[in-house]
Amino acid sequence: MFHGSMVALVTPMAADGTLDFDALARLVEFHIENGTDAIVAVGTTGESATLDVDEHVDVVHRVVRQVAGRIPVIAGTGANSTREAIDLTRLAMEAGADACLLVTPYYNKPTQEGLYLHYRAIAEAVPIPQILYNVPGRTACDMLPDTVSRLADIPNIVGLKEASGSLERNRELLSKVAGRIDLYSGDDHIACESILEGFRGVISVTANVAPRAMHEMCVAAAGGDRAAALAINEDLVELHKNLFIEANPIPAKWALMELGLIPPGIRLPLTPLSTACHDAVRNAMRRAHLI
Fold it and tell me: Which parts of the chain have pLDDT scores under 50?
């Protein structure tokens, strides 16, 4: 249903932390012009944790309106409260999103049965296509392949963003659910190999900064052109690494500011990129031929 380079879009903010909707519109156009295959609005990279509900829904609605059907819009609607996730998912559907991306509940550490019941409840409550999101390094919660396999039987659960950082885990998922739901890499540094092995795309932080290259890498990898995909990815290796030199989305927002695409705002408790990290991110941008 969705494929290719899907950007986990940052949410532009002014220096005082207020949302910058003019910059958001420019950023959407930047991605469409550079081949991004889908936009994830207000996912975790979009600082969903520090936007209130009204802001969250407003950003989704504005992205949907700006995109105007040219590419899919996927709304981040995950929460560690099942009721809150249902409410956000329903509001995103009403705002016109094509699908929702739901991160596993964070901090409260549900069991595998709890994860199954959480996602089943959301899917049964809101009839929009839904993509599961597993990122244990950020949530302290790891959704195991057997649980994903159970959830793959629910009709409107259509995909999984897997960000465990493990090719071995990705291969296990392919063996258990390929052909039942689509699989997307949530780790830029192994996205190329994951797509070559059968994943349908990547939900990407790197695509914020290098959308054209990420799109072209995905096209090559999905087409089985290993040499071309690896060659494109080679120029992105340092970006994949250094866009996480501090907590995401700190480096990505700084890089986009350097490119003149967004203002410098980010919300506490996140802070702007440390001066000591500037050269590492800037050099990665040079290697990717962005500056």
Answer: none
